[in-house]
Amino acid sequence: MLLKPEEYIERLSGYKRDIYVLGKKAEDFVNHPNIRPTVEAMAFTYKIAEKYAPHSELVGEKVNRLNYVNQTFEDLIARYEYQRELSLRLATCNYRCTGCDAINAIYPATKALDEREGTDYHKRFLELLKEIQKNDYACTAALTDVKGDRGKRPSEQKDKYLRVVEKREDGIVVRGAKICQSGAFAADVNFVLPTQTFRQGEEEFAVVFAAMPEDEGIKYILQNTGVQAKQREGGSFEAGNKYGDRTTCMVVFDDVFIPWERVFVFEDLKAARDVVSYFAPSHRCVGAACKAGFVDSMAGAASLMLKTSGLENVPVLQQKVAEMVAVSEAVFAISVGAAVKGANYNGCWLPNFQMANAGKVIGVDGFAKALMNLVDISGGIVGTSPSEFDLEMVGDFLQASEKFTAEQRLKIVKFIEFWATSSHLVGAFHGGGSPAAALVTLRFLMGMEGREEAVKNCIDF
After folding, report:
1. Residue 145 has what DSSP assignment?
2. Nearest to 93 by CA among 38, 145, 144
3. pLDDT in tens, 179-212
4. Sign of CA dihedral 450, 454, 460, 461
């Protein structure tokens, strides 16, 4: 089943949620100025879903690509194309990528767990997945714990990690917080996964489950950026992008009860490790595809900025736009290559782990390069422009090319200011793990022996 955008928004409006902005609970949260842009961004995923929708054997109909278990490399490529288009057309997060990565991590991990231990976790997961696909639920995933002192193990500071505090006949009770959660407050289902691997004696942290709207004791505490402050000020384009900043929150679980049917890993260190091991490369690889879309957006903004300023025929500036396009295509090519060179894990096709992590590293460098080119092309005005509320006073001074009005030029300036000052650069660095985390993974995957032997052969070493 494929929902329409307005159907998703109507369903979301019926939820009761404890969402806080600047210390105050948002009563009509769907229409709050800091929440509505995220809702609209997530709604847009429904608008273009048909174009990429696969047929699911699980429910016997077309489903959203972001709720699908990928079975071939063509499935992965279709997903990356979907994500790239979303990033281009939204110029912000679509918020559902982590949910898709969670689905494609939990599926193979629980299947292996059941085969090893004779449990029924995979069956439970499939039942929820059917519900997700039939209702076209928007899913996100929560991984990052607050962690506290990084020099200490979770067992030494339990309150810094989400954990099971009580086991009941009908379910479990969890306590803790997840931070840096993109769009969780606007989702139907929030998968909760471990933030890292755990050692013997840390089984209470090895839990995977799904949080639903009916669960009591969950609080969503939103971030506050300069872009979001502008959203609260109003105006038609002052914030730069109608779909808003990459909006995240801290999700606090205050002794939340989760029924067994929504628990997919419990006190099993290997299964918890498998989920993290499958999620990380999946998310890092799709992140490269998303960055390609973001760079596409920045390249479009750069081209428009040149035209509104009358500089579209300057070769050195056009070359900088071409560099941005090259970055976009190269980063997306890594994603496609990782998909093609991927492998089947218990019925789920995952990208090549080594290439996926390389895509993370190259994607961050490419994103930063593209942003530098965009700021260079645009000039100092993207950091010094007056507001849209001053347009009547400054319009004559701001107009450049006669082909565009002062308002049009200021709109593109504000859009570029959004790219330069929003949280997207930080998100590019740390979403799905930092480049340093990807490099650590690559250290264990890169297999230098073959490279060394090739060099030895060349020099008769």
Report:
1. B
2. 38
3. 999 999 999 999 999 999 999 999 999 999 999 9
4. negative
